Amino acid sequence: MLLVCFLSPLFLKAQVVYRGTVSDKESGRPVQAASVFFSNTSYGATSKADGSFRLNLPARGVYDMVVAVVGYETFTLHVTPATPDTIRVQLQPKVKELEAIVLQSFEKDGWKKWGKTFSESFLGRTGNALDCEIVNYQDIRFRYDNAKRELIAIAYKPLIIQNRALGYTIQYQMEQFSFNFRQGYLLYTGYPLFEEMQSSDRQMKKWARKREQAYWGSLMHFMRSLYGKRLLENNFRMYRMSLVPNEEKQRIKPLYKQIQFTPDGKPVTVSYDSVFYYNQILKQSDELEMVEQTALSADSVSYPIDGATIGMKFDEYLKVEYTVKKGAAFAEQMSGTTQWRANPTSNIKLMNNEPLRVNSNGAFYNPINLVTSGYWSQSEKMANMLPFDYQSSYK
């Protein structure tokens, strides 16, 4: 499955204030109440009546600035330390007639039919997901393509997510959501803005502990460890992996088809033991994992690009194991699963062999180029997400 990580800041040094205005591209009029924020952080503002906005940030860095408001196309700007402090934003109005036609093509009672599938795919199935709620779920529309066996979801308003497990209210500007049932391929892209919930000191401490737990072994934790060349110190083991055809399964398929059975299901031409063996092999994947036994260093898959960024490049697959999270207590976090009682293990692959650009805070570009399977394909959902300005006490 593909899990999308969201573009976020890499902080450098001095504090910076970004100012700007938001206007209608066609009329030039100021746009009020537009949400202006840096994706996957807790830094955001709202444009005033004259379209102006102001964002105070702790440091310059690499960001994705997002400007979103109902009735306009989402605006994004990749901000770097060289970007001027004053930013003029022009929003393109959406074509209302086209929007109405698109809405008509979606199912009338979509949430009733697809809500559970969407929630499990988007929020996840972890224990944290049980304490997550999409407040305005009625704003989500669904369409199912029978030929492709693909579910499409769209929302013309930002999703408001209450994550009571980690103590965040998340405003999520969803740009794309699709799940292909035939291929088991999930893709969702969007821009989240995090806001910390406020509560009693006891509850705040509980949220702090839960955030640490979500961070340990996460993709963010891995990318930060890769950048800092601290994979082993932070309990990650990384191995080269390739997929090879399952030749035994291919051999068994025609043999199984030739077996004759009695009306009550007893095998005639082979023994019970052979039938049992055949069934076990046929349950296997069409491809088998071939994993090298020597753990890789960070330098073997990364290289410096500049003072703030490294590149990540590898062939075929990497198998990544986190050696700390194990035992029944952790398995309970993965609601409905038991396979993570051992060390959580994930496979990662680069789409089209395109390298990633990784920053010290764990953000990487382009996130759509990284495909995950295994543990991260289940754990890296919105219910476990942390903003990239999150600072862990875990070293």
From TrEMBL:
Organism: Filimonas zeae
Protein origin, superkingdom: Bacteria
InterPro entries, per the entry: CarboxyPept-like_regulatory (IPR008969)
Name under which the protein is recorded: Carboxypeptidase-like regulatory domain-containing protein
